[in-house]
Structures are given as structure tokens and as C-alpha cells.
Design goal:
This protein is an all-beta fold and about 425 residues long. Helices cover about 0% and strands about 55% of the residues. The strands form 9 sheets. Strands 21, 22, 23, 24 and 25 form a 5-stranded antiparallel β-sheet that branches. Strands 5-6-7-8 form a 4-stranded antiparallel β-sheet, with no helix packed on it. The radius of gyration is 25 Å and the shape is globular. It starts with a helix and ends with a strand.
């Protein structure tokens, strides 16, 4: 009865489990079938959640049905599901593969280790079909930590140990103890199972580890940014400085670190401008402390000798601090290749306050501010649900920016304001939640 109700809730037709990855793939331990020999998992349950992927085939011919309630147009809909050992899930997608991943814990009754669980789906003919599951040590930063190339999945992760005091050397050579974690940053290469009839492994549904590289970064550093470009991976770690690593991924079984550049600060988002340049957004830092938003251009034409070609720091004094939503949300980042312009949402707090967008002129050797777009609110103390995420759209040399409670449209060439909209206009106290 429980199984039937569960399948009904998962919207599977005719109680068909064929589109669900095997529950047993999420087991741990000896796999002998004895429940007592299974490792306990996070929150005392092997199955902590269920994720369903629904695909709508927008190119499929729409069927028309008619019943007593009238005529109805039906899209082609397909649903697939997977049980997960994590409560939350993130998504990576390539042209042909969808990956759901989340961080859980493996327990051995005396200690636990962070583990990221992955489930892959094949995207084909308007459907998403589960194909394989796997796991890598540690946790992932975001979807850019994963890359699908050919028969392989490349996954960058950070393993963390318990917190403790460790020796640390400052810029003057003084040694003191600092409270931090021991970490290990790595890239794991997983191979998709060959599920063809000729392979004899049609029922093989496990991602196999075939290679890895670890030890990236100094002790205590974590991965702050990852980007894969062809056979190269660029990895940024940070604790005191910003090591910018170049990894040769051409040999899946033996990835190698071929370049390392140590500079101040760190990058959160890496954007390939072309095969020779990486545009980065992050923070300048002093003695491991972030001091202001920075934009950097790296020359990676020689993977063994990457160099910092240009950098601009928005604020780096003790009276102000700046940041950008683009550090953590790539949809807030907009680079215009033809105009060689970068549009970033930004916030500056301190003596010089600002909330809006910064427009930069960017080329391979220079990063210079062009103009700013300020987004202000009519009622500074008014808060309510109509809040716009920081985004920008460029059409016909006009940029429309969205942030908070305002929308503005400017000419990129003349910098003139063409039109704006204030969501707070004509609001009264009854419309808002007021904070003193």
C-alpha cells in the first residue's frame, strides 16, 4: 500500500519504476543485503529526500483532447525521479547530461566525513532518464565545480577535517597559531558506465573514479572558484593569498597541475573571454581579510605561465567595503564582448554608500570604470515581498538594470537615463513593513 501511494505521489504512470534509479544504489556498507550491516546516514535515514525531474518537449506536436469540460491542449511531459541521501539538491547541465548533486555525510559510528552524492540523467528526445549515481569526497562550491566532457564527469571538491589550532606564518615571518580547518582540494574524474548491450554491463549504474588530483592550495585553503575550458581547469583557492591554478585535464586518468599564480585577494567567479583570457570577479584582501570588490583579467594563453594582466579594486580602505551579487550568482554578471564592457551590480557601504550597477570598460590589459547606475528607493525603511534580484539586459545599445525596488534604462553610449520605474511609488505605511 505504501509503495503504491508513493508511486502515485511521484506521478509515475501505471506504477512504472523504469524511470527511477535503483534505490539500492544509495546504500552504503557491505551491500550483502543485511540491513544491520549498512552504515547509518545523516539524520538516521538512508533516503532523506526525493527529487523529480519533469521535462516538457516544447518542439513536440501538441495533442488536442476534448471532454465534457471542453478542449484541452496537451504538451508532451516526461517525469523521472531519484531518491537522495541529502535534503537539498543543486543542478548542473550540459547539452546531453543533467546532474543532481548534494552534500551528505558518511558515518562510521565514531566520525563522519562530508560526501557529495551525484545522480546523472541522460537528456534525449525530450526526456531526462536516470543513468548513474556516484560520490566524491568533500563538498562542492557550485555548479561550476562540475564539467561533462565525453565519457567523463570532472568534479572539484574540498575535503574538510575538524577545526583546530595550526601554525601560521604572517607576512613578516612571524609564526603563531591560528584557528582553522585542515583541508584538501581536489578534482575527481568519474567515468560514465557503458550501458550498451555489447558491453555486457547494461545494468551498471555507478560512476567509476578513474583519476584525480589533490593537494591544491595551502593547508586550510578552500576552493573559491572553478571553471573548465576544454582540456583545462582553472581553480582558485584562498586563505591568505589567491593561488590561481591551471590543471591539464587532457589525460582523464592523470590530471596534472601545470601552472600556479599567487596574487593577493581571491576570485569568486571566472568567466572565459576567449581561449587566452579569463575575466574574474572577487575580493581584494589583506592578511586574509576581504577589503573590497575587485575585477581581474588573467592571461592564460600559456597554461604554464598564467599572468594577471589588469585589476581594478572598487574600495579597499578601512572606511568602506564593497561587494557584488555576481560573486555568487553568475546570472548577475554581464560581459559584452563586442563593446568590451562589463556590467556588475555592486553595493558599497561605509562613508561612501552606493547601491546599483558599475559599468567598466574592459580589454586584455586595462579595466577602467565607465559610469555608474544608482538604484535608490523612495522609502528607505520600507520592506515587502516585491524585491527584484540584481540583473541586467542589453538590447540595441540600451541597458536595463533591475535591483531591489527599481528598474532603470540607460543608453550605453551617451550614458543618458531613458526611463525608470520605482516599485515604491505611491506606497503608504500600510503597504510596508517599516524598520526604524
Amino acid at each position: 500500500i505504501f509503495a503504491r501511494k508513493l508511486l502515485k505521489e511521484m506521478a509515475m504512470n501505471d506504477l512504472d519504476c523504469s524511470n527511477m534509479a535503483r534505490i539500492s544504489m544509495m546504500e552504503t556498507g557491505s551491500h550483502t543485503g543485511d540491513a544491520d550491516e549498512l552504515d547509518s546516514s545523516y539524520s538516521d535515514g538512508i533516503l532523506n529526500g526525493y527529487a523529480q525531474v519533469t521535462t516538457l518537449d516544447m518542439q513536440h506536436e501538441v495533442s488536442v483532447t476534448s471532454d465534457i469540460n471542453g478542449t484541452e491542449n496537451n504538451l508532451s511531459v516526461h517525469a523521472s525521479g531519484i531518491f537522495l541521501r541529502t535534503y537539498s539538491v543543486e543542478v548542473y547541465a550540459s547539452q546531453s547530461t543533467l546532474v543532481l548533486f548534494g552534500t551528505g555525510y558518511r558515518w562510521d559510528f565514531t566520525s563522519s566525513s562530508q560526501t557529495t552524492y551525484l545522480c546523472t540523467f541522460r537528456l534525449q528526445d525530450g526526456t531526462a532518464t536516470p543513468t548513474a549515481v556516484g560520490a566524491v569526497p568533500g563538498d562542492l562550491l557550485d555548479q561550476f565545480s562540475i564539467d561533462h566532457k565525453g565519457d567523463y564527469l570532472r568534479v572539484a571538491s574540498t575535503e574538510s577535517s575538524t577545526w583546530g589550532y595550526f601554525n601560521h606564518t604572517d607576512g613578516d615571518g612571524n609564526i603563531f597559531q591560528r584557528w582553522r580547518q585542515e583541508t584538501n582540494n581536489r578534482i575527481t574524474v568519474l567515468r560514465f558506465p557503458d550501458q550498451s548491450a555489447e558491453s555486457g554491463e547494461k545494468n551498471n549504474t555507478v560512476l567509476e573514479e578513474v583519476g584525480y588530483i589533490d593537494g591544491l592550495g595551502e593547508p586550510g585553503e578552500r576552493i573559491f572558484a572553478v571553471r573548465y575550458v576544454g582540456n583545462l581547469a582553472y581553480v582558485v583557492t584562498f586563505l591568505q593569498t589567491d593561488p590561481f591554478y591551471t590543471i591539464d585535464m587532457s589525460d582523464a586518468q592523470n590530471p596534472k597541475m601545470v601552472g600556479e599564480l599567487k596574487i593577493s585577494g581571491f576570485s569568486n567567479y571566472l568567466h572565459p573571454v576567449d581561449n587566452e583570457s579569463i575575466l574574474a570577479v572577487g575580493q581584494e584582501a589583506r592578511d586574509g581579510r576581504a577589503v573590497g570588490l575587485q575585477v581581474s583579467m588573467f592571461n592564460v594563453s600559456d597554461p604554464r605561465n598564467a599572468s594577471l594582466q589588469a585589476r581594478y579594486t572598487v574600495e579597499e580602505d578601512d572606511d568602506n567595503w564593497s561587494s557584488s551579487e555576481a560573486q555568487f550568482e553568475h546570472k548577475a554578471f554581464r560581459y559584452l564582448a563586442r563593446q568590451q564592457m562589463l556590467i556588475l551590480p555592486a553595493r558599497i557601504s561605509g562613508e561612501d554608500t552606493f547601491d546599483g550597477f558599475l559599468i567598466f570598460d574592459v580589454n586584455k590589459t586595462h579595466i577602467e570604470p565607465n559610469f555608474n547606475i544608482t538604484h535608490t528607493r523612495s522609502y528607505q525603511g520600507c520592506n515587502y515581498n516585491a524585491y527584484l534580484q540584481a540583473r541586467s539586459i542589453v538590447i540595441n545599445e540600451q541597458v536595463t538594470t533591475f535591483k531591489g525596488h527599481t528598474i532603470k534604462n540607460h543608453n550605453l553610449t551617451t550614458r543618458d537615463l531613458i526611463w525608470d520605474a520605482d516599485l515604491d511609488k505611491n506606497l503608504t505605511k500600510e503597504d510596508c513593513v517599516w524598520y526604524l
